[in-house]
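Dear H.,

Thanks for agreeing to be a second pair of eyes. The structure we're designing against is below in token form, covering all 206 positions.
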């Protein structure tokens, strides 16, 4: 993919020219390297978390870029900003869900039965739980030590699994593969002006 961005030039030199730089390949290059390390078990304690956060950052940057590129082309450089701001400020999950429809002016939507689509949504859900994690105050039963003659008191604390512990090699590779499908079936067709039904996109029946 050699899409470097969008360039609008005022050839008469008496007005503003514009460009929108495409930095997505910088993210995907790092993602490919990290994916290979995970695949080859070249990891340490924080590798899964680092890869997971890189996946989330790559996905959001990619969504924001293709939406900005769409708005620039549709509305022009002087009128596109409110549209870009409106679309890119959407909830992360809504942004994923709506992007194909935005790019195709309502013609295509995600095939929600596909594993890649489900994994992208799982990525965002898990990212929100990990990045905005919090603990609740929990009740538990404690024996009456005033009436007990036992030297040792037994009691039990039940805790919920921490979402960060769900990150492992399999989960990371699944997320990485889903990002690859997003790039292949959404980004590259968009950059090549060839957005059509494919493994991730279907016709909007509504």
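And this is the sequence the design step returned. I haven't edited it by hand at all.
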């Amino acid at each position: 993919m050699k899409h470097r961005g969008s360039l609008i030039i005022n050839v008469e030199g008496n007005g503003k020219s514009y460009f929108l730089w495409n930095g997505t390949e910088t993210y995907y290059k790092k993602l490919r390297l990290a994916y290979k390390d995970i695949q080859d078990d070249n990891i340490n304690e924080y590798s899964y978390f680092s890869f997971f956060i890189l996946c989330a950052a790559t996905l959001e940057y990619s969504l924001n870029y293709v939406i900005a590129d769409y708005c620039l082309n549709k509305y022009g450089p002087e009128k596109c900003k409110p549209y870009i701001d409106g679309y890119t400020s959407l909830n992360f999950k809504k942004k994923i869900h709506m992007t194909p429809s935005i790019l195709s002016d309502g013609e295509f939507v995600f095939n929600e039965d596909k594993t890649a689509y489900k994994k992208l949504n799982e990525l965002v859900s898990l990212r929100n739980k990990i990045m905005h994690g919090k603990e609740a105050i929990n009740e538990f039963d404690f024996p009456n030590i005033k009436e007990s003659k036992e030297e040792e008191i037994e009691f039990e604390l039940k805790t919920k699994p921490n979402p960060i512990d769900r990150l492992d090699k399999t989960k990371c590779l699944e997320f990485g593969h889903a990002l690859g499908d997003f790039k292949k079936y959404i980004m590259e067709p968009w950059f090549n002006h060839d957005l059509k039904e494919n493994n991730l996109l279907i016709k909007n029946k509504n």
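Two observations from my side: The helical segments are 24-39, 47-75, 81-88, 92-103, 115-131, 169-191. Residues 130 and 164 are 6 Å apart (CA to CA).

Warmly,
E.
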